[in-house]
């Protein structure tokens, strides 16, 4: 399922992408440990619980990379508080801006520790 967002919900990385997808948590790879502000996470949880306020929380950006054998890989580096808030709510997916990317772009984030993406 996808939805459209207003301009104020766009990040620098996904400014040209309007569509938002519900991406299952189990496919999102978060290789960098999050440093969380507990009060911020709790505030987001409360906002997400409200039927009139949940749409105020912007989606996270996810890099979509095709592996060399055609596998799909979804990497997320930002949005750690939003990610954690949704996770605590126990929902199966999270709203994401899916940004088509490449292994070369992933190397910017991970350097030489990039895995072999099949």
Ends apart, CA distance between termini: 26 Å
Q: How would you name the CATH homologous superfamily?
A: Conserved hypothetical protein from pyrococcus furiosus pfu- 392566-001, ParB domain
Strand pairing plus helix content: what structural class?
alpha/beta
The biggest sheet, with number of strands, parallel, antiparallel or mixed sense and barrel status, is: 6 strands, mixed
Query: What is the share of helical residues?
Result: 25-40%
> What is the percentage of strand-forming residues?
25-35%
**Spans with pLDDT under 50 lasting ≥5 residues?**
1-8
What gyration radius follows from the Cα positions, in whole Å?
Answer: 15 Å
> How many discrete domains?
1
- What name is given to the CATH topology? Conserved hypothetical protein from pyrococcus furiosus pfu- 392566-001, ParB domain
Q: Overall mean pLDDT score?
A: 90
CATH architecture: Alpha-Beta Complex
Please work out how many helical segments DSSP would assign. Answer: 3
The CATH class name reads Alpha Beta
Gross morphology: globular
């Amino acid at each position: 399922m996808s939805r459209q967002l207003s301009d104020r919900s766009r990040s620098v990385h996904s400014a040209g992408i309007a569509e938002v997808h519900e991406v299952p948590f189990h496919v999102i790879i978060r290789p960098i440990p999050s440093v969380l502000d507990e009060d911020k996470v709790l505030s987001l949880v409360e906002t997400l619980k409200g039927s009139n306020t949940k749409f105020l929380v912007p989606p996270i950006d996810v890099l979509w990379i095709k592996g060399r054998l055609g596998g799909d890989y979804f990497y997320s580096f930002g949005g750690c508080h939003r990610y954690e808030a949704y996770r605590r709510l126990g929902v199966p997916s999270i709203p994401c801006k899916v940004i088509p990317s490449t292994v070369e772009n992933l190397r910017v984030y991970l350097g030489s520790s990039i895995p072999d993406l099949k």
